[in-house]
Amino acid sequence: MVVVLSRIQMGYIDLANYKVLSFDKIPSTQDYAHELIASGRATDRTAVLAAAQSAGRGRYRRTWVSHHGNLYVSFIFACEERDARLSYAIAVAIAETIASFGIHPTIKWPNDILVDGRKVSGTLIEYSGRFVVVGIGINVNSNPTVDRYQTTKLDNYSEIPMNELLNRLMRNIDRWRRTDFRAVRARWMELAACINRPVKYQGEPAVLVGINENGALVLRRDTRYLLVYGDEISV
């Protein structure tokens, strides 16, 4: 997919030591970030921000409804190899950002953020060459109706300026990416929904125990322990 810049309202912003490419509307911040990488124009700590998306996507290429009024951003970070632990640092960073506005979030494996059991934020992490692209969507002023789960928006709980939300998110991502994983793991476990509760993995029941030092989800099925990387579980 090729984005023609002359047809899109675009701006450059320096915020929290990030280079921010800001659009009114593009098909997908995630896809645009990948285009930057493929064309050799990507740099570490670049953020692709859009007020709306016409083809936003989540995990497994599911549609991410992206109307105006919410936060849609994809971060590009230099990354030499895949790291399963990154997902937890990002989830904690988003949760801490939301908590800083007086809201009480929880985390659903691996990095969905819930408020009152309803999804308010999702993350898509994809690797490309020497970079990783971290796409984040946060429902701020509106929330879509989704068949698979219930959703909510931050505006139900607090009035949140978009620029301040983005600024705090960037600073929290920087903080938790630098934090030793033992502390990330401990905080993720504190915030996690469904710890020591029954879940389904590959259609069979199990108990969610936690995560290990390498970032694998630990499940218990009868007397056996399972290590899961990236697969879906359901409550």
Description:
- The chain is an alpha+beta fold and 235 residues long.
- It has two domains: 5-191, BirA Bifunctional Protein, domain 2; 198-234, no CATH class.
- The chain is built from four helices and 13 strands.
- An eight-stranded mixed β-sheet has the order 1-2-3-4-8-7-6-5, with helices on both faces. The protein has a five-stranded antiparallel β-sheet with strand order 12-11-10-9-13, with no helix packed on it.
- It is globular, with a radius of gyration of 17 Å.
- Mean pLDDT is 88; it is low at 1-10.
List keywords for this structure.
single chain, 235 residues, alpha+beta, BirA Bifunctional Protein, domain 2, 2 domains, eight-stranded mixed beta sheet, five-stranded antiparallel beta sheet, 4 helices, 13 strands, 35% strand, disordered N terminus
